[in-house]
Specification:
The chain is α/β, with parallel strands linked by helices. The chain folds into two domains: 240 residues, Aspartate Aminotransferase, domain 2; 134 residues, Aspartate Aminotransferase, domain 1. It is built from twelve helices and twelve strands. The radius of gyration is 21 Å and the shape is globular. The structure holds pyridoxal-5'-phosphate (PLP). The site of pyridoxal-5'-phosphate has 16 residues, from α3 and α4.
Length: 381
């Protein structure tokens, strides 16, 4: 099945009792048994729910995986992965990580004796300096947020697979339409489905896909034991959102490309971060592992003050000032005061995350309107 067919058909079949073409929302907590232990495969809704099962089959297909698990949020999915580790185990992770993932690792899991190093993974070889006999997991995010750096998934996984170390790719920024990490050797892939998979800014959800039966079994055990399951309504909404994933991401990428070039030519803009530029440090890697270059664009200003950034942030009309990304509507954000506020200024500045850096999640509106909106906002400084 090709991708555009999978998003619509994989895991989904008409309801046998009514013929309903759309998977019903099974709003139930328990299931009646004919006799003790005699049931239709469903006992209690923390463990199984038919709406969730359909979604999980669909999600597995999108990442060419044997199985998928669906969670109440992206961070709940990550939490389950980290719970597979034991005290003394070590994680190696990309250094410009999503703030919530950084917080989960450093503020919660470090308490339980798990150690982590945050390193520059843009050069995959760097990883050799940090691997030791306790290294259990390498956590990759690519493209990274908000600097849009690219990590070579295949190269990193060649190193981890040779040493029997797990790798997990947070594929939220690319979506399964652009990039399939399991095909490049990753052990696990995770998404905040809140973003591109859902695509309509109307739900919070997370998922994990893998080809490793033991890992899938362990994750199912953890999910059932700890209980971070999504409700059936959110599973339904996500299944619905996924049906247009390919169309939405395709258009977002086209719009982002056009905006990246527009901004690069603008006199008030000093730097544009977008992996599609041929002079982006990892353009070739992006070209090889991604179908297009994504819907995210970050840029900095010649007048590099927060005051100027604020004029733009409150001067757009279609680009709404908000956290999150990946929806049909365009969003504009200020990483220094929003998503990355918890990172000390010196640390931020080292990677180019200045007070005037602006991040765009480009939506699927008409490109003429989007450009005019940014042009107007830039005229305010
Ligand atoms: C939003 C996000 C998460 C966390 O997902 P939630 O659904 O908000 O819990 C993790 N990773 C990345 C890259 C994200 O953008």
């Amino acid at each position: 099945m090709k991708f555009a067919t999978k998003v619509i058909h994989a895991g989904v079949s008409p309801d046998p009792s009514t013929g309903a073409i759309m998977t019903p929302i099974f709003q139930t907590s328990t299931y009646v048994q004919e006799a003790p232990g005699v049931h239709k495969g469903f006992e209690y809704a923390r463990t199984q729910n038919p709406t969730r099962s359909a979604l999980e089959s669909n999600l597995a297909a999108l990442e060419n995986a044997k199985g998928a698990l669906s969670f109440s949020s992206g961070l709940a999915a990550m939490d389950a992965i980290l719970k597979m580790l034991n005290p003394g185990d070590e994680i190696i992770s990309t250094n410009d990580l999503y703030g919530g993932s950084y917080r989960l690792m450093t503020k919660l899991f470090s308490k339980y004796g798990i150690k982590m190093s945050f390193i520059d993974l843009e050069k995959a070889e760097n990883i050799h300096n940090y691997i030791n006999s306790n290294t259990k997991l390498v956590w990759i995010e690519t493209p990274t947020n908000p600097m849009l750096n690219i990590v070579d998934i295949k190269k990193v996984c060649e190193i981890t697979n040779a040493k029997g170390i797990w790798s997990c790719v947070d594929n939220t920024f690319a979506s399964p339409y652009l990039q399939n990490p399991l095909d490049l050797g990753a052990t696990m892939v995770t998404h905040s489905a809140t973003k591109y998979l859902g695509g309509h800014s109307d739900l919070v959800h997370g998922c994990i896909m893998s080809n490793d039966d033991e890992i899938l079994k362990e994750l199912r055990f953890i999910q059932n034991a700890a209980g971070a399951v999504p409700g059936p309504q959110d599973c339904f909404l996500l299944l619905r959102g996924i049906k247009t994933l390919h169309l939405r991401v395709e258009r977002a990428c086209q719009n982002a490309e056009s905006i990246a070039h527009f901004l690069r030519g603008h006199e008030k803009v000093s730097k544009v971060y977008w992996p599609g530029f041929e002079d982006h440090p990892n353009h070739e890697v992006a070209k090889n592992q991604m179908k297009h270059f994504g819907g995210m664009v970050s840029f900095d200003l010649h007048d590099n003050t927060e005051i100027s950034a604020n004029k733009i942030l409150s001067g757009t009309h279609y680009f709404s000032l908000a956290e999150s990304l990946g929806g049909v509507e365009s969003l504009i954000g200020h990483p220094a005061s929003m998503t990355h506020a918890s990172i000390p200024k010196e640390e931020r500045m080292k990677v180019g995350l200045t007070d005037s850096l602006i991040r765009l999640s480009v939506g699927i509106e008409d490109i003429t309107d989007l450009k005019a909106d940014l042009n107007h906002a830039l005229s305010l400084i």
